[in-house]
Amino acid sequence: MSEYIYTASFYVFAAMVIISALGVVRKTNIMHAALLLVLCFIGVSGLYVLLEADYLAAVQLLVYGGAVAIIIILSIMLTHRRRMEETSLANNRARAAALLGLLFMALLALVIFYTPWNYSPAEPSQLTVLANVLLTGYVLPFEIGAVLLLAAMIGAVLLAKGVDEE
Amino acid sequence: MIGLEHFLFVAAVLFVIGLYGVLTKRNVTAILMSMELMLNAVNINLIAFSRFITPESMTGQVFAIFTITIAAAELAVGLALVFRIYHDRNTVDAEQLNRMRW
Amino acid sequence: MFSQYAVQHAWLIPLLPFVAFVVIGFFLRRCPRPAAGLAIGMSLASFLLALGVGYGVFAGSITVDQPWIQKIPWLDIAGIFVSMGVYLDPLTAMMLMVVSLVSLLVQIYSIGYMAGDEGFARFFAFLSLFAASMLGLVIAVNFVQLYVFWELVGLCSYLLIGFYFDRISAREAAKKAFMTTRIGDFGLLLGILLLQVVFGTVDFQQLAGILPLYIQGSGIGLLTVAALLIFMGPLSKSGQFPLHVWLPDAMEGPTPVSALIHAATMVVAGVYLVARVFFLFSLLPNVMEIIAWIGAFTACFAALVAVSQTDTKRILAYSTISQLGYMMLALGVGSVTASMFHLMTHAFFKAALFLGAGAIMHGLHGQTDIFAMGGLRRRLPVTFAVMTIGVLAISGIPPFAGFFSKDEILAATAHVSGPLYGMAVLTALLTAFYMGRLLFVAFFGREKQGNMPHEAGPAMCFSMIVLSVLAVVSGAAGYMAHFGEWVRFGPALHEDLNLGIASFSTFMSVLGLGAAWLLYGRRSVSPDQLALKLGFFYTLSYNKFFIDEFYGWLNRTFVYGTGKILYWLDIKGVDGLVNGLAWSVGHLGDELRRIQTGQLQQYGVVIFTAIMLIAAWVVFSSPIFVAALQRGAY
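ok -> structure tokens follow
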């Protein structure tokens, strides 16, 4: 039975992700697009759960669904000018981009479905293994990631504030 | 029943949708939102591979953590830029940001 | 003894005048007297050495069949071996003596003639250089050495014709001389190169041995081409028709130059070349015939022009052309002896005539129109005597020199061809006529008002007298010393005087002189009336048959025409190509820059298309996928 639940949940989350993504790119009302983006993130988080990456699912919800979404809405609020319905129009490359997308899609599908994947029979590890790896094997990128965040913070503040004022 | 290909396919579709958004939307914030979609697709890919091909070493998940980190940082800086542009040019229309042309 | 020394050191003969040239040129430009002294000293030394060589040759065992040769290697590159050296045989010895003697006498004459001229030292420098070049040419052992000195001689001619360089006519004449002879030189060079390529050598002695065998093997075609090319040199240098046009204009140079270069020595370089290379020409009867006809035609043609000219030096110039024609004719009919004999006697009497003309000009302050002169025999007795001897010599009156040499030529021609003999005799008649005309108009009759001529100075007289003495005796002397045994090609011809030909030619000469006397001496018949009657022919003759005008037309039409075409091609074609290339690059840049729209999403589309294509390429070249596709759907 868990098999069926698993399958059903997969399709539900998959549908959530894809449909909300389509909404993000197609809606001309940017507020709606932002909210649909949040929905997409939630869906992705669900997919992570199905992939037994529980820690990451949580992180996804916190960071993306929380911080990223808020920041995007902040930016929308501070920059919109016209009527809300016209804030996110499409340019005249829509057809070319769609074609491009479909071609790439076909290519990816080809690769995905024709590669003979070798599934590994092992069981996924516990979270402690992740923590271990992160703080021993990959400690350098970890620390640098911290520095990166600091830099991004400073940079964002500086940029938003402006240098030549006063 | 649900195998690796399913997850990869979902990720691929998500990626292509994000790509479409990046190339098509006129609002710079919308472009950034589409880029987030692409990054999420990549994350799904990584975690799927980690789960099905190398489950014991969790390499994909580690990578995904870093991706999230970087995506967040990049988004912050990108939106700061949007503020700047709005402040200077009074527009966030990508079509009108074409000064670096011939 | 001295002649042994002279023969061994024959290379000094050209070297000494060359040293004079260098010294005068570098150091003595402002010192006329030392310059003249050095030049004459060196010329005298050369002449004495030449006499030594002459004695050594004629007393010793050096003959045309056994020449005395001394060589040093000069060029040895990549299979080409050329030497420089000395080639002595009776022909060379005769030329050395004649050239050095006339050169010496002309230099002595120039002390008087060029006195007071600003370029006095320069003149002697050039004369010395010329002497060195001509003497070097004469002793050449191979074509290359000959060509080197040939060009040097041409250079000296240019320098000396244009000596009065502040006169436009002199400059133009110098250029004309150089360019006309250049045409001939080009043919000569091609011929030499042809011989080098085919035979691997340009040495006279070696070629003389190789050629007869070659003809047996491969026939005469190639050699005919080479011979005709080589003959182009003498054609221009020795004033044969149609490249004779430079010689009359060369009279722009000072008279000593005309005497030395354009009468006695340089112009005969071409004749000498044919004689020296006779081993080639004598094997080719067709070429010989061409040479003979060209010679005869030139002789006749020039004589026809000379009869109507009024400028002293022009008359003498055309006379020189005519006599050179005689020499070529003699070579063409096979008689090296007759040609060289006439070369020798002509050098003496023509130089005498030119120096006499110079004396007249010097005395009348530059006057050359014979109709502005008259009755000069009373005022210029020495000059008159010299000119009379010269005229008699050139007309072929016995026992003067010209009689013997001209007679040899006529005899040789009569043996070979009737028409040629006829032309030669006609020329002799005309020669006597126009020379007599010159003499009678200038020296007889009434003196013109305003002419106050003074006789020439001692230096000038000395040379003139020596030359006129030679003009008297050299013919008989040569005949009696059996010139034909020494200077010859092939077996010696024992030509005794053919009384028939001799008397007929003498008769013709006397006839010519008599006609001149009647028209110009006694004025029994009016020459002007005669000119009117002959109308058209007179015009042709006076205008030199319009050859110069024809060449000018050719030049304007073809040379300038070609130039204009090529200029157009350059401007439109080449420049157009280059400019067009530059324009198209700029234009392309202009168009291509529109790709930079500044719109990032545009760039994104392009970039992503590229990425996709690369990805597709990678995927489809991967063996897994090729195999998978073949297996069918998963």
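The domain at 4-95 of chain B is CATH 1.10.287.3510 (Helix Hairpins).
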